[in-house]
Specification:
This protein is an alpha/beta fold. The chain folds into three domains: 129 residues; 161 residues, 3-Layer(aba) Sandwich (Rossmann fold), CATH 3.40.50; 101 residues, no CATH class. The protein is built from 13 helices and 17 strands. The strands form four sheets. A seven-stranded mixed β-sheet has the order 2-3-1-4-5-6-7. A five-stranded parallel β-sheet has the order 9-8-10-11-12. A three-stranded antiparallel β-sheet has the order 13-14-15, covered by helices on one side. α3 packs across α6. It is globular and about 70 Å long.
């Protein structure tokens, strides 16, 4: 991830820009307004941001909210068009539609490779993230240690939580799966303006774990849910972006559902953490150390209002190759690989017990069990793998206690049912075939080739 070292280019000649908001939007009610600001070197810049369509011809740029796109106006000769959205590409498919994207000059979105990234974890909103959960905090009204808050129904998200509730007690304060109504919780329309932000953080501090589940799963789509929990000093249980690691202050600060085969196994691990205070506190040790450089980059960009960064981008008149809007990844670039040092449980024994990789004696789920010609035999969970001796990358990765492609394993476990017949086309060494075999059970069948 790149560090935004120059949000205000020295060759910035234009000092005023007029922008018309053509569509409605989900941002704050006062999002569209005029304001002036100064650069660090003292230059005064002005943004005229209006929703008055009668000023279309006189504006330098037209701003569109992707979920409200609708019919587009006639484009002025020198006008630049801006596409904005904090919704994921799953819920707003126009963000990935080439026929739509090609019509816009500047993109403002949750994507780190957008011209003007819209990211959540600013110092202005969250402070320094060093707060810890009070030692003598009140317990929840029900005694539950897990909190869930969601008010917009999402089938796969809610079904995961409902299944989790079968194995561990979860308090749900939102409209989805609601089972508690705490007096201090502020919900409903425009709740942020009525103290909703503060009420959520106060409520969180009565729990050990918070289910920070996104409404969709997409690269870079990391919302306020996980940052609320990180700031409040409890352990986030995260379900969402496959590259969540790029957004975290440290390597061990969340429990990732992608590391578990099922809600049942996740519940078992959370119960273990609840009973082992040292293991639970290990997820909070990041608050006492330095933040990752990538996390500091997010904070640096988010501390500059996105409207200011948008205005600077327009004034500079540059293309996507310039980072003056705060871009954090090269356009069209591949997402930097997530470090394999993920959020594993504190021992292989616990991982074996609670991640579904359980050997016959539960003494370890990955071990060499001999050789067969040019192959090594490797015990993986309750199955065996034959790995070519030259395939050290697979053998070493598995023996070191890591789950191969946990997001794929989760997808399979969520969809495969007992007695299913499953084709694994392109099975490679069979890691996912074993996952499928466990999922279909003794009455099912996996055909792998």
């Amino acid at each position: 991830m790149l560090i935004p070292d120059n949000l205000f280019p020295p060759d910035l000649e234009t000092r005023r820009v007029r922008v018309l908001a053509w569509t409605a939007h989900y941002f704050d009610r006062d999002f569209v307004q005029d304001f002036a600001f100064e650069t660090p070197d003292g230059r005064r810049l002005t943004l005229e941001f209006t929703a008055d369509r009668s000023r279309l011809a006189s504006c330098d740029a037209i701003w569109f909210h992707a979920p409200h796109l609708g019919t587009l106006p006639e484009r002025g000769r020198h006008q630049r068009w801006i596409l904005a959205s904090m919704e994921s590409e799953v819920n707003c498919p126009v963000l990935t539609d080439p026929s739509v994207r090609s019509r816009f000059d500047v993109v403002m979105s949750y994507r780190l490779d957008s011209d003007v990234p819209l990211v959540y974890p600013s110092r202005g909103s969250y402070g320094n993230f060093r707060d810890r959960r009070p030692v003598n905090t009140d317990i929840s009204p029900t005694g539950a240690k897990v909190l869930y808050i969601a008010s917009n129904p999402v089938n796969d998200r809610d079904s995961y939580v409902a299944e989790l509730m079968r194995y561990i007690e979860v308090d749900s304060a939102g409209a989805c799966l609601n089972n508690i109504e705490p007096e201090e919780f502020v919900a409903g329309r425009h709740s942020w303006g009525r103290g909703g932000w503060e009420s959520i953080t106060r409520l969180m501090r009565r729990y050990k774990f918070y289910l920070a589940f996104e409404n969709s799963i997409a690269t870079d789509y990391v919302t306020e849910r996980v940052f609320h929990a990180l700031r409040s000093g409890l352990v986030p249980v995260y379900r969402g972006a496959p590259n969540i690691d790029e957004f975290l202050p440290s390597k061990r600060c969340i429990v990732n559902t992608a590391d578990f085969d099922s809600p049942e196994h996740l519940a078992g691990y959370l119960d273990e953490l609840d009973r082992d205070e040292d293991a639970c506190n290990a997820y909070l040790q990041w608050k006492d150390g330095p933040f990752r450089e990538s996390f500091e980059s997010l904070l640096t960009v988010a501390d500059v209002d996105p409207r200011i960064r948008m205005a600077v981008k327009l004034m500079h008149g540059c293309g996507s190759e310039c980072r003056c809007g705060g871009r954090l990844r090269n356009p069209g670039g591949v997402v930097e690989p997530v470090s394999p040092e993920l959020h594993w449980p504190r021992s292989r024994e616990l991982h074996a017990r609670y991640c579904g990789l359980r050997g016959p004696d539960c003494s370890g789920y990955v071990s060499d069990i001999g050789a067969a010609g040019n192959f090594d035999r490797l015990r993986y969970g309750d199955g065996e793998l034959l790995i070519e001796k030259k395939d050290d990358i697979f053998k070493d990765y598995l023996r070191d206690g890591y789950t191969w492609e946990p997001h794929v394993r989760r997808w399979l476990v969520e969809r495969i049912r007992p007695s299913d017949i499953v084709l694994d086309i392109g099975a490679h060494i069979g890691v996912h075939s074993l996952t499928m075999s466990r999922a279909v059970g003794s009455r099912g069948r996996v055909i792998a080739f």
